[in-house]
Amino acid sequence: MEKIKIFAPATVANVSCAFDVLGFPLQETGDVMTFLKTSETGVKIRMLGNSNLPTEAERNVAGVVALAMLERKSSGFGVEIEIDKRIKPGSGIGSSAASAAGAAFGMNLILGEVFNQNELIEFAMLGEKLASGVAHADNVAPCITGGFALVRSYEPLDVIRIESPDELYVTILHPQIEVKTSDSRRVLKKELPLKTAVKQWGNIASLISALHTSDYELLGRSLEDIIIEPIRSVFIPLFYEVKQAAKDAGTLGSGISGSGPSIFALSKGLETATKAAEAMKKVYAQTDIEFDIHVSKIAATGCRLL
Amino acid sequence: MEKIKIFAPATVANVSCAFDVLGFPLQETGDVMTFLKTSETGVKIRMLGNSNLPTEAERNVAGVVALAMLERKSSGFGVEIEIDKRIKPGSGIGSSAASAAGAAFGMNLILGEVFNQNELIEFAMLGEKLASGVAHADNVAPCITGGFALVRSYEPLDVIRIESPDELYVTILHPQIEVKTSDSRRVLKKELPLKTAVKQWGNIASLISALHTSDYELLGRSLEDIIIEPIRSVFIPLFYEVKQAAKDAGTLGSGISGSGPSIFALSKGLETATKAAEAMKKVYAQTDIEFDIHVSKIAATGCRLL
Predict the structure, then answer these.
(1) Which in A115, A254, A295, B263 has the greatest CB count within 10 A?
(2) Is A128 a catalytic residue?
């Protein structure tokens, strides 16, 4: 193809008890990217609107992914990528992952679908590496696969896609404060008690079972994070108040999206997810902090052609 | 009912990466217990064959469970329990759990099915507490539920039953050496690196997904324990040689059953499980250690009326 336009969804990684191994994409929230094949070799990046993100290909998340893919295929042509960045950087809902996975997905179409899903995730991980120093896959994987993506292992990369229960919706409150991924990694304890780990893996095992059986009650009971959330929540003003408001609104459970500052809550049905949005808003309306709210179905597909 | 006879299966707990939270029962291997209602109150225990197990009800695993159940229902009658103990104590395939869960299951029938599944597991946990000092549920739960039983939480007790893939078989080699549960608990490190825990919960999450989708390949890839097995395997002579023999025979994966010394291997199909039994036998035939071999389908039901 000569020119294509794609949608690259925002993603929620970690999902409470599933730190570093699980994520899912949003149906409604995401970036739009346009890819234009050029006779000139190399990668040109154009950012739409106001953006502080670098546009040199080597320093741009989408750019490094595209460069690597062109190089691997020694394609003899170039590409111009226009990015309409609708996911705010630093939000904790996979802004860099959308650019990285979007680039991998779009470039694959431009190149004639020569790479498989695992390869696309691996290319996208190069973008994550540039963005945060760590080539993690828990945002880019679901951004490519859709549904819930479980990253079992990195060497070799082993990603399992799990269909999302049909009525599962997410509500996200994004407080516009900056939490650096590097800071939120640094505060984590490097060791933990075996007893705590066992409790956590009982929960993640149950969460996976609940996804497979669409058992919303069990899904709710499993959304408990006794390791990461107690530490990282200190960076997020009124975190527990928002959590309580979401609970009172009837959500299944809530937690920190990625490394924050966004807070996500999962609900059965759009009605509860919308009610939760109102309740979560109310908590933040008491503060001077600006915030965004997103309500979305869990997307069955990741990046998609528009 | 006045008199009943039941089968209480052997169980494999831990299942590699799922330390302390998962277990499954065997179709073929287990104890046989007979319950006779008596006008005299109290519990009488009779052990068939040679057994060093105590027969005073208060000191017997089945006895304490039966006593607690009679007391809860203030039934006004007593019971005589005859136990044909076919699972060797200290084998690591849930010998005490079979007595405890069998007692809970049988007594419930004698009492007119007055307790629900969770209550039966809780009663059976009293037997485990007597046997090992810890009221763990990862053997008694599958012994009651059948299939794979996942113990998500203890307070409150939350057990999730997962159907076993249809062609899943287990091969067990039981070296007749003594490994005390208390010893095998004591050697475990109380802390572990977060990185290690994350790898382990990626595996357990994948294992659960594999069970739900009958994905035997994924099941095999997920059967990896980087926390407990490296430590406990030192108690089991030729552990890695048996593991290798099982792998070469085409099994999906293997590990320590419970706290050992039994070694289990999972296979797709009876043929591979039988081939694995031969291969595992061969390794132990080189030693002076006596051993038993069991080959069995994963049982869809736990304790059952005969």
Answers:
(1) A254
(2) yes
Nearest CA in chain B to A228: B194
Structure tokens at B289: 């250690």
The Cα B14–Cα B255 span in angstroms is 9
Residue pair A87/A31 in contact by the 8 Å Cβ criterion: yes
Considering Cα of B62, then B63, then B64, then B70, what sign does the dihedral take?
positive
Instruction: Determine, for residues A152 and B205 on separate chains, whether the beta-carbon distance falls below 8 Å.
Output: yes
- What DSSP string runs through A173-236? EEE-----HHHHHHTS-SEEEHHHHHHHHHHHHHHHHHHHHT-HHHHHHH---SSSHHHHGGGS
- For residues B185 and B137, membership in a common domain is answered with no
Over residues B205-252, the pLDDT tens digits come to 999 999 999 999 999 999 999 999 999 999 999 999 999 999 999 999
CA–CA gap between residue A181 and residue B9 (Å, rounded): 49
Domain that holds residue A44: 3-163
Secondary structure (3-state) at A21: coil
A181 included as an active-site residue: yes
Give contacts of A195 with chain B, Cβ < 8 Å.
190
pLDDT at A51: 80
Q: Residue B299 and residue B302: Cα distance in Å, rounded?
A: 7
Q: Tally the domains of chain B.
A: 2
Tokens linked to A183:
């800071």
Residue A222 has its nearest CB partner, among B18, B152, B213, at B152
Closest alpha carbon within chain B to A161: B209
pTM beyond 0.80, yes or no:
yes
Which residues of chain B make contact with A155, given a CB cutoff of 8 A? none
The answer to whether the CB atoms of A201 and B199 lie below 8 A apart is no
Q: Which one of A11, A122, A128, A224 is the catalytic residue?
A: A128
Q: Which member of B11, B29, B128, B145 is catalytic?
A: B128
Rounded to whole angstroms, the Cα distance separating B54 from B47 reads 9
* Interface ipTM: 0.95
CATH number at residue A232: 3.30.70.890
Angle among Cα A236, A241, A243 to the nearest 5 degrees reads: 85
pLDDT for res B185: 80
Best residue in A148, A196, A209, A216 to probe B by mutation, most B CBs within 10 Å?
A209
Angle formed by the axes of helices B270-285 and B239-248, to 10°? 140
End position of a domain, from candidates A163, A184, A216: A163
How much is the pLDDT for A178? 83
Query: Are the Cβ atoms of B160 and A218 closer than 8 angstroms?
Result: yes
In the prediction, which pLDDT does B152 show?
97
How many angstroms away from the CA of B18 is the closest CA of chain A?
Answer: 8
B83 contact partners, CB below 8 Å, separation of at least 6? B31, B32, B33, B45, B46, B47, B48, B51, B62, B99, B102
Residue of A15, A10, A38 whose CA lies nearest to A207: A15
Judged by DSSP in three states, A44 sits in: strand
Is the same domain home to B152 and B10? yes
- CB nearest to B150's CB, from A153, A192, A205: A205
Kindly state whether residue B305 falls inside one of the protein's structural domains. Answer: no
